[in-house]
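#struct-pred
JK: can someone run the complex with IPE? inputs below
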Amino acid sequence: MHVAIIMDGNGRWAQKRGLERSAGHRAGARVVRRIVEAAARDERVDMLTLYAFSSDNWSRPSAEVETLMRLFNRYLRSEVARAVENGVRIEIIGRRDRLGDSLVDLIEQTENMTAAGQRLTLRLAVDYSARDAILRAALATADDQPPESADRTQRAEWFAQRIAAATNAVDDGSCVDLLIRTGGEKRLSDFLLWECAYAELLFVDESWPDFDEQGFEAALGEFQRRTRRFGGLPDAVSG
Ligand code: IPE
Ligand code: IPE
Ligand code: MG
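RT: done, structure tokens with the ligand placed:
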């Protein structure tokens, strides 16, 4: 299954403790490590997409943007060996043209070094906007059409591949099964709008720095208690 997480609430977590917002981002980065390891251990999860930096986050004060970019850079450097060891393939989705050259090099190195990972694909969304991805895919496919014979599902899969390409994803886009947002807000904030068409949504009040393996396992348990219908009827009703 594909789990996606909007890791929200770092700033408020820090402010509540009288700390700088950057302290919340540092604490949040430690939680990322733990949740990635929990996902890699869990046989049910084969893809984990984490919202690390949205295209709208560029509007934050430059010091905060720099902190976030530095933490991202540090995360990639420090995690690559462990990712290889744990069979985690790392991919970055989003725009790359506004990231520094050295960061783009690091992204490419990380993707290459972890390309053989089979247990879990970890997607980190950086300078990511779902609407921008959909729009760029639409513009790029103006002269490129799905096969005439394709049905609606096949056309959607065809377009999902174009969206994935528009975000520099290595693999095709895959539908999100479970979307978790920490931090108490109940909105998508321009994350995976296409891929979440039938996702189960779970909003948790805890801030991201307080989230942990137990919360992650509880979310997976909640997902398994839900009945997904995809517009049809549950088996018990349809016989
Ligand atoms: C999420 O935490 C991290 C990013 C958006 C990069 P926030 O920084 O949005 O924290 P709050 O929502 O202000 O508490
Ligand atoms: C979404 O959180 C982006 C990330 C978690 C990276 P935001 O804090 O930016 O979203 P809004 O502003 O509350 O919608
Ligand atoms: Mg926020």
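RT: quick notes.
The pocket of IPE (ligand 2) is lined by residues 6-8, 51-54, 57, 185, 187, 189 (CB under 6 Å).
The longest helix spans residues 62-85.
JK: thanks, will look after standup
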